[in-house]
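Example 9 (inverse folding). The structure is encoded as follows.
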């Protein structure tokens, strides 16, 4: 059986002027258009291809990598909005439709949204939905407290950010537990901090038991990492330079580097601060 919206491993059956016909063990066939045919390919070879419906609603295979698979979540960009709905770029020739009924807020061309891709049972076409609550399920959790999980940030709330956990569960990343920039559409690694009695998941970005630094110190350390381990700032730097680089006052900056110095995470030199790499035990 050839599954639309998924990768299929199929056998090359015959070569034609329009492309290769591929087949499954159940004798189903699908066309791989000529422009996607690998340079070295022979009858009897197996190929891994993605299968979907082309612009004429015919099943077709491609070697292009889609930005989302069936029964999965991803952040995609809207390329066009017309009378049928919003059409999103998912890396294939035919854009992915989000019908108006699947848009809790009308989508705008050029904006990015987190959506879920599924096979519509009525039309038998692949479509996407931004009504994510319908596809997130916490009734039978597959995660445990302390477990490392994959996250996709899908909405911002007064408390923080809603996240898709391991492509199936709903979780919450509390704002006061975030010490880096987070935005809707970000794919992150995180950890299950707690499972509440109502099956809701509290999520954090650091391993459980990780001793957090004071937020200013954490912000300076993140900037150090992003800058290759050094910053041309120190306790005698101009306050405006500190504000421009780190978005914090000089007083807060000095407190932060004081913490990092005591933790032996940095050294302070005349030309700036330098990150000290953690030493592995012998």
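The amino acid assigned to each position is listed next.
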């Amino acid at each position: 059986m050839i599954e639309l919206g998924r990768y299929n491993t199929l056998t090359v059956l015959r070569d034609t002027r329009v492309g290769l016909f591929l087949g499954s063990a159940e004798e189903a066939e699908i066309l791989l258009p000529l422009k996607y045919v690998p340079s070295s390919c022979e009858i009897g070879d197996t190929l891994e291809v993605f299968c979907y419906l082309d612009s004429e609603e015919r099943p077709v295979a491609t070697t292009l990598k889609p930005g989302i698979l069936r029964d999965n979540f991803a952040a995609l960009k809207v390329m066009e909005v017309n009378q049928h709905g919003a059409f999103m770029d998912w890396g294939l020739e035919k854009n992915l439709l989000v019908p108006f009924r699947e848009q809790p807020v009308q989508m705008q061309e050029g904006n990015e949204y987190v959506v879920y891709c599924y096979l519509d049972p009525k039309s038998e076409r692949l479509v996407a939905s931004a009504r994510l609550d319908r596809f997130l399920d916490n009734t039978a959790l597959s995660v445990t407290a302390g477990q490392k999980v994959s996250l996709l940030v899908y909405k911002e709330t007064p408390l923080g950010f809603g996240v898709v956990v391991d492509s199936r569960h709903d979780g919450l990343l509390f704002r006061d537990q975030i010490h880096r920039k987070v935005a809707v559409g970000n794919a992150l690694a995180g950890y299950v901090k707690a499972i509440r009695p109502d099956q809701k998941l509290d999520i954090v970005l650091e391993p459980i038991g990780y001793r957090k630094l004071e937020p200013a110190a954490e912000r300076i350390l993140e900037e150090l990492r992003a800058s290759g381990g050094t910053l041309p700032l120190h306790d005698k730097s101009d306050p405006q330079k500190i504000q421009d680089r780190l978005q914090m006052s000089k007083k807060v900056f000095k407190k932060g580097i004081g913490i990092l110095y005591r933790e032996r995470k940095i050294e302070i030199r005349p030309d700036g601060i330098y990150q000290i790499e953690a030493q592995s035990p012998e």
